[in-house]
Amino acid sequence: MLWLGAVFLGLGPLMIQPAEAALTTSHWEGMYFCKCICFGTNYTILPIYRPTNAAKPCLTCTKRWCADQKLPICLGADVGEIDPDTGTGKEGDIEGRCFQRDSPRDQVVVTLFLLTVFGLLIGAAIRGRMERAGVTLNAGGRPWWANDDGPPSHESPYIFGLYMELTRKLGWDVKVVIPSSQKSWIGKAYQIKDTIKGAYYYPKGPNGNGCTSEISRPLEEDEVGEWILLDGTPATCVNIAVHNMYPGEIDLVLSGPNFGRNTSSAFSLSSGTIGAALSGCLSGTRAIALSYGTFKGFKPTKFTDDANVLACKIIARLWEDWGKDTEGLRNGDVDLYNVNLPMIPELGQPNGIEVVWTTVWRNAYGMLFKPKEEEHASRSMREAGPDAPEKTPDKPSTPVQSDELPTGSTALSFHFAPANMTSLVNPPLDKLPYGSDTWAILNAKASVTPLRAAFMECSPESYRLSSEEGEKGSWVPGRPFKL
């Protein structure tokens, strides 16, 4: 504000000859002025309406011309030497300085520039106050979205709601490229022998159901965006999107929200959601894996809106204040974060749930597959005994000519049927390490786990945000995550 005043006040008093006062402002465009200075300090600025030489108006602005104007501030002033051959221009008490005033158009341009700068300063001040008050404005991210549950359906109930929260509340330009169907438990697998095909998908409110198209087209009524579905794994979708569809346009890979938790090493190393995030950071992009943990006795979709609000806060906080890891792939940044939210009623309480830094709980699972029951493959031992040589088959074996296995027999057939998962999903609380991801989610806390793209956790310094560097004890797992 002071700067603006200085610009406009620096001209000093402007006097106009009474005989010429009727001239309009438009006549001043390109006009020349003479600044008559008397006694070294007092001055008056006069327009030169009728210059002696129209081609060189400033020749009119002389000591004698200023004296002839009979200005009150110059009363008694001595003109001094005016001979151009002998005078230096500094003699006497009067000095004349000629200048050309900016046109109204130039003044408008300068004024608009100053107002723009002033507006940006005000906006920055307001933004800072709002963010300190917990209100997040557009974080400026260009995220790309992946998941392993596919497009909106009963198997993928969360993606549409969080998409709307990110685009409407944070104002982010979110690109969505996801598998065309459920791809859970597939880890970071790539499809290297398949031709990956895709289609455009146009979701509508309120649940994200929509239609597909083989070609890109304008949005129709009630459609909220254009997504892309690929018949590939989550990691495959990420690599294609980052390097083929949107090269150089992606700042953040967001994978999820997974329908179910991805805590502990057993689930994390099998997760297609985390696999997609790993694929993103291996391509040089920040990545966050997000999962919503389901608990028996609660309908998880009942808490979707509250979970999305908290997820957006965590995502925006991480994006704005990404942590450091000396061994990180991107100039010492943390490679990726694994975030887990419990779908419980406490999400809707005024204070919500606590968010904490966590490590990965190390555990293991047992049998995940069972043989398919068939009459001719149900015998547990051979007729001649368990140590007898295998009976020569009546039918000669089928030579394998390609990657395809013989289809005539199903004796070696298995299906996914995990056994005894209770110890992984609901282990005794006293057996869980304090500060681990499973400890957090079973204690009604959301967890944030920094990871390296090397199947390992980050160094202790990574259990903090960049702005918290130097705080004592800030690396301790289990401490609060500051939103």
Distance between the termini: 34 Å
Helix and strand succession?
Answer: HEEHEHEHEEEEHEHHEHEEEEHHEE
* Residue-averaged pLDDT: 80
Q: Could you estimate the helical fraction of the residues in percent?
A: 10-25%
Oligomer: single chain
How many β-strand stretches?
Answer: 16
How much β-strand is present in the residues? 15-25%
Shape: elongated
Unreliable residue runs:
1-28, 130-140, 374-390
Instruction: Tell me the major beta sheet.
Output: 11 strands, mixed
Short key terms for the protein model shown above:
10 helices; about 475 residues; elongated; eleven-stranded mixed beta sheet; alpha/beta; single chain; three-stranded antiparallel beta sheet; disordered N terminus
Structural features, described:
- The chain is α/β, with parallel strands linked by helices.
- It contains 10 helices and 16 strands.
- Strands 4, 5, 6, 7, 8, 9, 10, 11, 12, 15 and 16 form an 11-stranded mixed beta sheet that branches. The protein has a 3-stranded antiparallel beta sheet with strand order 2-1-3. A two-stranded antiparallel sheet has the order 13-14.
- Helix 8 (304-320) links the parallel strand 10 (286-293) and strand 11 (336-342).
- Helix 5 (234-245) packs parallel to helix 7.
- The longest helix has 29 residues, at 104-132.
